[in-house]
Amino acid sequence: MAVYELDKNEIAFPDPRGGDEDGLIAIGGDLSIDRLLLAYNYGIFPWYSFRDAPDIMWFCPMKRFVIIPGEAHVSHSMKQLIRSGKYRVTFNKAFDEVIQGCSKAQNRIEQEGAWLGEDMIQAYTELYHQGFAASVEVWNGDKLVGGLYGVTLGRAFFGESMFSLEPSASKLALIYLSNMMKDRGGTVIDCQLETPHLKSMGAKYIDYDEYLRLIHEDF
C-alpha cells in the first residue's frame, strides 16, 4: 500500500484507508496548527522517533483503540484510592508541566525511539494555547505526580501521552477525564495504541467508520 510524501506548502492528507498494515499513511509535512487540526479531524496523528526519523510519520490505524466516556473501568483498589482523598485532580492547570512529565518521566527522553521531543512539545503547547489541547493533572499536596494530555476537537479527546511518578496516578487522571467527558456529553477518548494498562481500564477496538462517526458527532 502507498505511503505518501506530504508537501510542506499544501495542507492535505491522502485517504487513510490506503495506508499500510500498521496505519502509516504519509511522511513529511510539518507540525503546523492547521495541519495538526486537519489530521486529528480524520483520526490521523504524528508519531516518529525524533532522533532517527528524517521526516514526520503520520498514522491512522483502521482499528481504533478507544474508551467511551463513562465506561472507564474503576477497580476496587482505585475506588479505595479515590475515597482516600490522597490525590487532587485538576484540569488545564499545568499543561506545560504535564507535557514535560510525559516527555521525561522514567527517563523516557533518553530511551531508544523517544518521540516526544521539543518540536512535538512546542506544537502541542501551541494547540493548548489556542484551545485545542488539554491536560489532566494529579497532585499529591503541591507536587505534580501524574497526568495526561491530548487534543480536543468537538466532543472527542485524542489522548497523546500520560505519566505517573506515583502508583496509579495516570489511571486516576484517565478516570477523571472519562467521567468529566461523560458529564459534558463527550463521545470518545482515542487511546491510539493498545497497552495492557489501557486495556485493563476498559479500552476496546472499534472500526474506523464507527470511530469517525463518534469524533464528528455534533452536540
TrEMBL record:
It catalyses: N-terminal L-arginyl-[protein] + L-leucyl-tRNA(Leu) = N-terminal L-leucyl-L-arginyl-[protein] + tRNA(Leu) + H(+); L-phenylalanyl-tRNA(Phe) + an N-terminal L-alpha-aminoacyl-[protein] = an N-terminal L-phenylalanyl-L-alpha-aminoacyl-[protein] + tRNA(Phe); N-terminal L-lysyl-[protein] + L-leucyl-tRNA(Leu) = N-terminal L-leucyl-L-lysyl-[protein] + tRNA(Leu) + H(+). It is found in: Cytoplasm. Keywords: Acyltransferase, Cytoplasm, Transferase. InterPro entries: Acyl_CoA_acyltransferase, Leu/Phe-tRNA_Trfase, Leu/Phe-tRNA_Trfase_C, Leu/Phe-tRNA_Trfase_N. GO terms for biological process: protein catabolic process. Gene3D superfamilies: Leucyl/phenylalanyl-tRNA-protein transferase, C-terminal domain, Leucyl/phenylalanyl-tRNA-protein transferase, N-terminal domain. Its EC number is 2.3.2.6. Signal peptide: none annotated. The keyword Translocase does not apply. Functions in the N-end rule pathway of protein degradation where it conjugates Leu, Phe and, less efficiently, Met from aminoacyl-tRNAs to the N-termini of proteins containing an N-terminal arginine or lysine. This is Leucyl/phenylalanyl-tRNA--protein transferase. The gene is aat.
